[in-house]
Amino acid sequence: MTGTPGRPDRVVLLNPGPVNVHDRVRAALAGPDECHREPETQALLGTVAGKITEVCGAAPDSHAAVLLTGSGTAGLEAVVSSVVPAEGRLLVLDNGHYGERLLRIADVHGIDSVRLEFGWAAPLDLGTVGNALAADPGITHVAVVHHETSTGMLNPLRDLGALVARHGRSLIVDAISSLGAEDLDVVRDHIDWCVGTANKCLEGMPGISFVCAPRERLDALADLPARTFYLDLSANYRAQVLQGSPQFTPAVQVLRALDTALDLTLAEGVAARTARYADRAAELRAGLQERGIDLLLPPDQRAGSITNAHLSNGMTYDELHDGLKRRGYVIYATQEKAAGVFRLANMGQLTAADIAGFFRAFDEVVARCDPLPA
Questions:
Q1: Using omega within 30 degrees of 0 as the cis cutoff, is the peptide bond preceding 60 cis?
Q2: Residues β-bridged to residue 113
Q3: Is-contact 304 274, C-beta < 8 A?
Q4: Rg, the chain, Cα only
Q5: What is the dihedral of CA 256, 180, 303, 117, to 10 degrees?
Q6: Whole-number Å distance between alpha carbons of 193 and 213
Q7: Euclidean distance between CA atoms 305 and 279, whole angstroms
Q8: Is 340 left (phi over 0), alpha (psi -120 to 50) or beta?
Q9: Helix (H, G, I), strand (E, B), or coil: what is residue 340?
């Protein structure tokens, strides 16, 4: 890598979003200035929503996507605050940091919630979930994180969706770190509220989140009082989908980039992207294990786009991060409950050469940090 000292031309992002994007996605940001109330931009909103619906596995006559200018958390807050009625109750399935976040959003809005805490890096117990639903008829909605990136765990969405449907409840899924690279189908998996973002496995730019849901579910929100203004999902749905115009000013250039990223996603196909990510993950995991570094989860519980590994050689996270960043590679920390662990994501436009270069840099950093023998 060359360029200004300390500033390589290309930084390889091994954090779980934002990601390294295709040149076409980056170029889309440099389009002409435009007004969001003009018909071309309004048409773009509908086009992007249609492509999102397709990636989610649904048809536009049965489902719709509502876009929000904001990170994935904005989409989550829009759903949690908008869809649970005053007399409803939310069951949150928690086995990591982002499960906790769902509960915190509910608490902020005064939504009655029940927490099933399984422990960090612990698999969901579907029997326990079923028992909770059977014991509490007041639960109207269930919320889960598909890919819990704090641990790298992929939760069993298909089986969970079938279970929630059998109990007649509504399923909210945080698919922020899975959509586009993991097996997910909102119809097959009985997902009523699917939340995603542009800047992870869809390989777009940060700044747009979205919600894909059945039209009948979105229509029914009109009967519920709003808890928020900007993030009122019903109001945004009525404006964007029913009236064909954004309620507020969207991030138009980011929307253009997402449109391009979705074209690339659909052309590649989710299955092919899953396989591409699996190759990069296998290269990362093999390289770590060759160096004697322990991985956090057993293979059957890992998502295909992130690997959590234990720090070794007495090296601190800051030493590893800073040494790698100076060499053009950005890794990610974990939350305090997973101290001593670092994260390597393989989302985005990464190549086998990127992974090989990372390990050359990694070995240099470790060699510099190794204490001298006594």
A1: no
A2: 90
A3: yes
A4: 21
A5: 80
A6: 5
A7: 10
A8: left
A9: coil
Structure tokens at 169: 């409840």
Report DSSP letters for 262-317, one per residue: HHHHHHH-HHHHHHHHHHHHHHHHHHHHHTTPPBSS-GGGB-SSEEEEE--TT--H
**Whole-Å CA distances, 18 to 128, 217, 225, 335:** 35, 31, 34, 18
Of 259, 211, 238, 281, the closest CA to residue 70 belongs to 211
Per-residue pLDDT of the chain (374 residues; tens, 9 = 90+): 444 444 457 899 999 999 999 999 999 999 899 999 998 999 999 999 999 999 999 999 999 999 999 999 999 999 999 999 999 999 999 999 999 999 999 999 999 999 999 999 999 999 999 999 999 999 999 999 999 999 999 999 999 999 999 999 999 999 999 999 999 999 999 999 999 999 999 999 999 999 999 999 999 999 999 999 999 999 999 999 999 999 999 999 999 999 999 999 999 999 999 999 999 999 999 999 999 999 999 999 999 999 999 998 788 899 999 999 999 999 999 876 556 889 999 999 999 999 999 999 999 999 987 554 43
The Cβ of residue 33 has, within 10 Å, a number of other Cβ atoms equal to: 6
Is the pTM here over 0.90, yes or no?
yes
Give the strand pairing for 141-145 and 170-174. Answer: parallel
